[in-house]
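Input record, target 12 of the design panel.
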């Protein structure tokens, strides 16, 4: 392929918010994806890029976003660029208006580009959202062989295992994810997949 043209809105969503722009266009030089949602939606999950070493650039294409970087609030209407150079900086972004769209670009300075854990996580989520729990878990296991420290994949593997009533496997994935990312315990609380063994989770994750 020499070139490709599409509209952001025409990239099919994988899950409720994420548009896999890189996969849609076949880009291999850098990471680029988009998140779309309405007022109140969490479009950039709280995270850092300490494991990947990625720098990230967020471009608000439409709507308005409240970003927080290391606890500092940033009001970002359409057209705003937010660059997070420090991979260890904690960041999150919440839509303040309906039809908000954020384009995210990321790569590690001085290194060949490598796939992001988030791409794998959203592939697993897409299968999960279709009710294909066994397939979602199989794909998560495949990704974790090569990338055992990708907490977004570990968390989504735990959800799929929980839906399949594989309690011990789900707990193991959650333990590993929580060791890597402190906000995993917050993600678990509202997730109905874990309802059948929530008391065990409270003992494990606090």
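The sequence produced for target 12 reads:
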């Amino acid at each position: 392929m020499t070139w490709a043209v599409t509209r952001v809105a025409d990239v099919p969503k994988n899950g409720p918010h994420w548009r896999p722009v890189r996969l849609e266009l076949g880009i291999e030089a850098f990471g680029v994806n988009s998140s779309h949602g309405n007022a109140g939606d969490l479009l950039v999950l709280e995270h850092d890029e300490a494991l990947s070493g990625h720098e990230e650039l967020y471009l608000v294409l439409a709507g308005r976003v409240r970003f927080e970087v290391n606890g500092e609030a940033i009001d970002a209407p359409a057209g705003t660029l937010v660059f997070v150079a420090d991979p260890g900086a904690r960041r999150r972004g919440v839509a303040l208006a309906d039809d908000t769209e954020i384009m995210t670009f990321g790569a590690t300075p001085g290194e060949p580009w490598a796939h992001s854990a988030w791409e794998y996580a959203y592939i697993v989520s897409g299968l999960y959202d279709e009710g294909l729990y066994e397939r979602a878990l199989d794909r998560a296991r495949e990704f974790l062989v090569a990338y055992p420290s990708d907490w977004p994949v570990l968390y989504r593997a735990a959800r799929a295992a929980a839906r399949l009533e594989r309690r011990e496997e789900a707990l193991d994935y959650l333990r590993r994810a929580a060791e890597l990312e402190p906000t995993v315990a917050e993600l678990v609380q509202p997730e109905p997949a874990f309802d059948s063994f929530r008391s065990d989770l409270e003992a494990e994750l606090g």
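The two ends are 50 Å apart (CA to CA).
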